[in-house]
Specification:
Number of strands: 22
Strand order of the largest sheet: 16-17-15-14-20-21-22
Structural class: alpha/beta
Number of helices: 16
Helix content: 25-40%
Largest sheet: 7 strands, mixed
Oligomer: single chain
């Protein structure tokens, strides 16, 4: 009898496999980091084979930890760092180049060139996205133009391109021996190549980016009972297990937080910070710098859409304090250091390391420290870093309020940074709404498990998933309105000073 659903959570800095039971609780988990490769300023790469190897390792470790027997894992769900692009040879299964990561900015000139004819919102009506280095389509175009092996394989018809979900699903379901080349609709919606209304690759967009259709995967539902193939019978599960659920990481967190009704919202605090607001089957066009994206799609049903605010630097800002400045030895120490001071001492840190994402979308911005005086110390820097995450979240929430005319009553939170109680309290203070942390904070992996489990009937429907969700802690706002607005006003002044640094 099936006891678990396996979720493979392939993130920006590490890969995890978690086995979830019917109550949505983790029965076993394994995690392994992979290298961050920075060959030039603004370039960020991953090794696709390293990611694949890490996926195989953590899956075997999680299965062994649970003592899972053949037949006890019902299905496999995938969630992944979005927008990161892999191109490989379909005959050999070998990558043709390093993966270009979502944070990479090498496509700025290409995006500027495309924006010269129609502006940065040239394709927004079809895609819900502005022209930006963030998205996958420009990355594929860049590889075709600049990597001879990619161009040669594309001309020969042997190249396959996709986001990390495509790469993993293709390998899990057979690789060169007939693996399925698919991508789920949420990942496809982040390429700038898919039309949000047709949920298919758009010929006008393919022509504009000069990307051949046969290079791209087939777009499939996030929850797909038909599945896309199975793992090898001699693999870590000890049996062939269907791969039938996939979601981009932030959409997976929305599902894991059971935000199935319009108006429900979550914020994930990871390497970056991502807030999604469920808008139901209604496609809401943003006028406030947000992204319109697909939240999820169940096979045979209409797509559910969302507004998203994407923040490039959140948890990675703490890593920067640790690795580049040496202010802390471990990421967990940032809260202790920040608590050595009662406020930020007038210091504001704008982490525009590779530009600013929502709601500003300024690729010309760069990081700024403002408000420095001789009074400032290490504690103020630590506090300013945590506050920067909360301020950026407020900027996104304000944009959502204007776009969707929805006044949020609370914010559900997840991700690695939600263990930082100082940050969570300041987040509630600067938003003026309660911040709610669930008992299961690994909601990204949980969302992938829910997608696969729903596909095979491991869970009967969303009502059962709602019953699984449990509240762990709530932070209530404790700051008066005048103080809140004054602090946020100073933050906005600092943000303005980051603009226009790159000419």
């Amino acid at each position: 009898m099936s006891r678990w659903v396996a979720a493979i959570d392939q993130g920006t800095t590490s890969t995890r496999c978690i086995l979830f039971d019917r109550q949505g609780k983790a029965a076993a988990a394994a995690q392994h980091e992979h290298r961050q490769i920075y060959p030039r300023p603004g370039w960020v790469e991953h090794d696709p084979m390293e990611i694949l190897n890490r996926t195989q390792e953590v899956t075997a470790q999680a299965v062994a930890q649970a003592g899972a027997q053949p037949g006890e894992v019902a299905a496999v769900g995938i969630t992944n760092q979005r927008e990161t692009v892999v191109v490989w040879d379909v005959r050999t299964g070998q990558p043709l180049c390093p993966a270009i990561v979502w944070q990479d900015t090498r496509t700025k000139d290409l995006c500027d060139h495309l924006a010269a004819d129609g502006g940065s919102n040239r394709f927004r009506d079809a895609t819900g996205l502005p022209l930006a280095t963030y998205f996958s389509g420009p990355k594929i175009r860049w590889l075709l133009e600049n990597v001879p092996a990619v161009r040669a394989a594309a001309n020969a018809g042997t190249a396959r391109a996709g986001t990390i979900d495509s790469w993993l699903i293709w390998n899990l379901t057979g690789g060169p021996a007939g693996g399925a080349h698919v991508t789920d609709v949420t990942n496809a919606s982040r390429t700038m190549l898919m039309n949000l209304r047709t949920l298919d690759w758009d010929e006008r967009l393919l022509a504009a980016f000069e990307v051949p259709r046969d290079l791209l995967p087939r777009i499939v539902p996030s929850v797909d009972p038909a599945g896309w193939g199975s793992t090898r019978a001699d693999g870590p599960f000890g049996a062939a297990v269907p791969v039938c659920g996939a979601l981009g990481d932030q959409q997976a967190a929305l599902v894991g937080q059971v935000c199935f009704d319009p108006g429900e919202s979550k914020n994930t605090y990871g390497t970056g910070c991502f807030m999604l607001l469920n808008t139901g089957e209604k496609l809401v066009a943003s006028t406030q710098g947000l992204l319109t994206t697909v939240a999820y799609r169940v096979a045979g049903r209409p797509a559910v859409y969302a507004l998203e605010g994407s923040i490039a630097i959140a948890g990675s800002l703490v890593q920067w304090l640790r690795d580049n400045l040496g202010l802390i030895r471990t990421s967990a120490e940032v809260e202790t250091l920040a608590r050595t001071v009662s406020d930020n001492g007038g210091v504001y840190l704008v982490p525009a390391f590779s530009g600013l994402f929502a709601p500003h979308w300024r690729s010309d911005a760069r990081g700024v420290v403002a408000g420095l005086t001789g009074y400032a110390n290490r504690g103020h820097f630590a506090r300013a870093a945590l506050e920067a995450v909360a301020y950026q979240t407020r900027d996104v929430l304000e944009a959502m309020r204007r776009d969707a005319a929805i006044d949020l009553k609370s914010l559900r939170v997840d991700g690695g940074m939600v263990v930082n109680e100082l940050l969570m309290q300041f987040q509630a203070d600067i938003l003026g709404v309660p911040v709610v942390r669930p008992k299961v904070t690994e909601t990204t992996a949980l969302g992938a498990a829910y997608a696969a489990g729903l596909a095979v009937g491991f869970w009967n429907g969303v009502d059962e998933l709602r019953r699984n969700w449990q509240q762990d802690r709530v932070w209530q706002p404790a700051m008066d309105r005048e103080s809140r607005e004054k602090l946020h006003g100073q933050w906005l002044k600092a943000v303005e000073r980051s603009f226009g640094w790159v000419s």
